[in-house]
Amino acid sequence: MATPTALRAWQQGIARAIVNGDATARLPIHADSHADAPTRLGVYVDAYRLRLLDVLRQDFAQLAAAIGPPRFDALAHAYIACHPSDTPSIRWFGRHFASWLRARHTRPAWYAELAAFEWALGEVFDAADAESATLAQLSEQAPEAWPLLRPRLHSAQRLLRGHWNVDALYTAIRAGTPPSPARSNLGYWLLWRQDGTAHWRRLDRDEAAAWSAAAAQRPLSALGTALLRAGLTPEQAPERLAGLLQRWISDGLLTEFTHPA
Predict the structure, then answer these.
(1) What would the pLDDT profile of 54-74 be if each residue is shown by its tens digit?
(2) Three-point CA angle 47, 53, 57, nearest 5°
């Protein structure tokens, strides 16, 4: 019987062989009349990669459809080699895929942006539930307290930035229409979940600035300053901020307004 130390070393050796794709690793695996040791180990080596490949195909289904299975599978296998699974839950295996694609400068840049869009959709869909703030809760606050109120964002939201028409690409691919990648000026997309459904929309520059300030847990006065820096006049900023707060609440994007400690 193997000692605990020997058993641990044996298990680690098998894990390394599977992750490294080495079915010929010298391990104490006993062969029999039906299969030799490399064949036995090779079953697990192949199963490991095929399972991870299947996960990437599901998490980035629109990218896979846009560039075709052969090209996507080649990218996926390369990613698996660079980023072995390192979490107990396979749900998070693809979390580095978009940034890994972005670092591969030989690939079209929209690959990475579409992958980031798909991953963000998955995150907002899986995020924890929370009660949404209401207009009544905001109206109950004393007017003099408003500048110091801090809006708290729902966890089921993500803000993306990029230079490609990823929202149009995603919609076209899902509809079975050939995608038409188009590069543009820097854009912002807000993705969120409401009533069990994922939504997204493109933000104007001023809303993106105010949203970023809210995400940094800044008070409403700082959101107003962000609108001014985005080009609004002192006369325009208060009305614009009020309209944004109303829309964010209506979309279920905020959970509460907190007072400073």
Answers:
(1) 999 999 999 999 999 999 999
(2) 145
